[in-house]
Amino acid sequence: MDQKKIRVRFAPSPTGPLHMGGVRTALFNYLFARKHGGDFLLRIEDTDQTRYVPGAEAYITESLKWCGLVPDEGPGFGGSFGPYRQSERKAMYFSFARQLVDSGWAYYSFDTPGDLDRLRAEAEAAGEVFAYNQQTRGSLCNSLALTPGETEQRISSGEPYAIRFKMPENMDVTEEDLIRGSVTFNTRELDDKVLFKSDGMPTYHLANVVDDHLMEISHVIRGEEWLPSMPLHILLYRAFGWEESRPRFAHLPLILKPQGKGKLSKRDGDKMGFPVFPLLWKDPESGENFRGYREDGYFPEAFINMLALLGWNAGTDQEIFTMEELIENFSLERVVKSGSRFDPEKTRWFNRYYLQQKSAAELAALFMPLLEAKNIQAAPDKVVAVIEEIKDRCDFVADIWEQGHYFFEAPAVYDEKTVAKRWKAETPAQLEAMAALFETIGSWEAGAIKEQFSAFMNEKGWNFGGVMNPLRLCLVGGNLGPDLFRICELIGQEETISRIRKAVQLIG
Ligand code: GLU
């Protein structure tokens, strides 16, 4: 079993956008595959047609690509174990279900949805929960309770039926989960799950196990919410006679809300102001938008770095990991059992870190489209120079605008507090003199501007702060920004002079 080639799969159902927990599952599968020179598959589990959401599969694929988690095999990615969409494998599942009926591991059930609803309602009225299981199956409408003749007759007359797993009675199923350690379930507590539905489709359980077998999956790495399905899956491998080659299991811990109890839900993001999805998702039914990390300006490397540490650590205090370092360091043994709390502030911190690692030229390439969208023309050299000045104030590319918009457009308003504090009776005349001085400067460069400015100030005997603060106000609209003379240089001689005169006119 252990010599087998490592093959893992990410198997989402296209029932909506991929939650960040889903991306973490994909990531851990990807890291495990890469670390062991194995294969990473994408399989679309779309057998539940009632829950199918248009656009969800494309969203999943795009998210994986954005994160750099490109599958080796999957719909649109090639591979020799396809098709990788379960709906396209539909024809094959029935014979597997039949095989289990023939070997006594499964049975036909003729109970109609109406019958089952009634049983559920009756149980509820009695304060109980109805389960189709080893206690109740004998009194229900199925091939275990009916005679072989009756069963045959119902089937040949075309009566709809489902195929259910016949859960063995009172048996312990024990498994060494690679994260959780030894886990035991007793089959007494498990119900007889439907394997094949009357609509001609397999359920998740049947399709998942059959496909993991046929696709030669070596390790099933998935969220903790699937742990209760593990005993059924293990018994299915046993029932099919595939125990020898069956995958090992690893169930990943829950991702918890930033505060309070419970797991992170898609509504938490709206409530607390952070994205829960990798990409923006426009709900096709409600038209509602759910924000995404990409559109919110996160770098995929920051998003991935943050996700990797949700439930895993390298055993050191290293926090910054490139994808290569994650691959190098990853192991399932270092995935924790307990839920891990999502921290939006930390995610921002990661983004800041990756932004600071980028050169001003790289950031300029990302920032130029934002300027273009605002119809602002700026020379690439200038953009690079501006970014060099303000980069350390930025966590996101969009912060470059927040922090440096005045490099690209004259202030439209002047901060009232700064005006009240800095604008004195003598200010207009002093600034007018400064504008006149600036007109005479030959080499418009911060050092030279500063030199001439200082000489002039000394000659006049003016207070430096008394002129520099209003000058800054004219140029940036408030009391902010880097070195004043660098600002003058970067916005240009003409623009500097024009902003001074405009402010003198407007503020008076
Ligand atoms: N289709 C299941 C899901 O949506 C897959 C669970 C598994 O990995 O077995 O998460």
Brief write-up:
By secondary structure, this protein is mainly alpha-helical. The chain has helices spanning 20-35, 56-67, 90-102, 113-125, 148-156, 204-214, 230-240, 266-272, 300-308, 323-329, 344-357, 360-373, 380-390, 397-404, 416-422, 427-439, 446-460, 464-476, 484-491, 493-507; strands at residues 7-10, 39-42, 106-109, 162-165, 172-177, 181-186, 194-196, 219-223, 248-252, 255-256, 281-282, 289-290, 340-341.
List the helices and strands and how they pair.
Elements lengths: L6 E4 L9 H16 L3 E4 L13 H12 L22 H13 L3 E4 L3 H13 L22 H9 L5 E4 L6 E6 L3 E6 L7 E3 L7 H11 L4 E5 L6 H11 L7 E5 L2 E2 L9 H7 L8 E2 L6 E2 L9 H9 L14 H7 L10 E2 L2 H14 L2 H14 L6 H11 L6 H8 L11 H7 L4 H13 L6 H15 L3 H13 L7 H8 L1 H15 L1
Parallel strand pairs: 1-2, 8-9, 10-13
Antiparallel strand pairs: 3-4, 4-7, 5-6, 11-12
The chain binds glutamic acid.
Features:
mainly alpha; 20 helices; three-stranded antiparallel β-sheet; single chain; 44% helix; Rossmann fold; 508 residues; 13 strands; binds glutamic acid; elongated; two-stranded parallel ribbon; Helicase, Ruva Protein, domain 3; Glutamyl-tRNA Synthetase, domain 2
What is the name of the CATH superfamily of the domain at 7-73 and 209-254? Answer: HUPs
Gyration radius from CA atoms, angstroms: 33 Å
CATH class label of the domain at 7-73 and 209-254 = Alpha Beta
Unreliable segments (pLDDT under 50, ≥5 consecutive)? none
Bin the strand percentage.
Answer: 5-15%
Q: What is the count of DSSP helices, taking H or I runs of 4+ residues? A: 20
Q: Structural class per helix/strand content?
A: mainly alpha
Provide the CATH topology of the domain at 7-73 and 209-254: Rossmann fold
Q: Tell me, what's the shape? A: elongated
Q: Widest sheet: strand order?
A: 3-4-7
Bound molecules: glutamic acid
Q: Classify the helix fraction into a percent range.
A: 40-55%
The averaged pLDDT comes out at 96
